[in-house]
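User: Study the shape:
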Amino acid sequence: MNFPPINEQMDLIRRGAVEIIPEDELVQKLEKSLKENKPLNIKLGCDPSRPDLHIGHSVVLRKLAQFQELGHQAILIVGDFTGMIGDPSGRNATRPALSLKETRINGESYFNQATKILNREKTSMVYNSEWLSEMNFEEVIKLTSRYTVARMIERDDFTKRFKAGEPISVHEFLYPLAQAMDSVAIKSDVELGGTDQKFNLLVGRDIQREYGIEPQCILTMPLIVGTDGVEKMSKSYDNYIGISEDPKDIYGKTLSIPDYLIYTYFELATSISSDELTKIKKQLDDPNINPRDIKRRLARTLVSLYYGESEAKFAEEEFDKIFIKKEIPDEINEFRINEKKIGILDLITKVNFASSRGEAKRLVNQGGVTIDGEKISDINSEILVKDGLIIKVGKRKFMKLLVK
């Protein structure tokens, strides 16, 4: 194995990281790795309750990919067993528990999406049920004896819920301990996670020490802000850019982010070089350069990462056609319909542009619905259906109607 020099490795590892705990120990691990010509085990725990990955998830996955570039072993641990417990990290209540079958299905989906970023051939995926389901009650009791309730209550979300008088189930204390056993099982050298996972990652370090294993180092990455520029990226806030979304949606959503996020997205969500990052920073600081042009480059870069340059070019052309030239895109989904006349609210729901008549009514009232380019403002409008009629809802949803 041909590892880069330590200073080069650390420069890449530090990029975008919030904390490295402790950094001097990581340097020692890298020196030992270089001396013994042996890769470090880099661990990332996967939450099987969220099989659809977005740019926010890609931040920590990109850091794992960087470790791969440096020659180290990436290990994805799918929490199929811990997924049945539920993790309250950063939440006011426990995350809903899943069945083992559900966690396995979601785990496969996670891996298939994650390897759009990671090198599939050099990524090891394991399920933590392989060791956690084998533990008997005596072993669980011994594990719990190695950590105190006082330390557990130090966890921020537990503290808030305890002070608010909200219930905390005992099984929730087992989650960070179970996750720590993952680090024991694979002899993790470095564990990655978002800043909201810091407590759990540190528990893993403590439990490794209790089991006579050299404790892992911790590297936390920031929680990226979503397209609204306010909340962290999440499907719950509908401010996400999914890595498996249509290229045109990735492109369009990227252009909707506030200008102040452009540099952060380049730094955390792309593989652009440090030299290019420096140039982008200067361009953003230059009042003579329109940030929109840099944002368009970001949008092309993100689409290229997941679909290639040709798709990125096509996505940009389609965006310009729809939003700048106000034309209809070349490729539109078609919907076959029996009715010769249909109410606008029923039509919107029928083509699945709204989940209910209430949502369809809101879209019409907001002025976001057109039929063949004509805005529909009356929720009671009756539409005469004909072959080739085009309904547009919002900025990017088009559907061509075909009469059966």
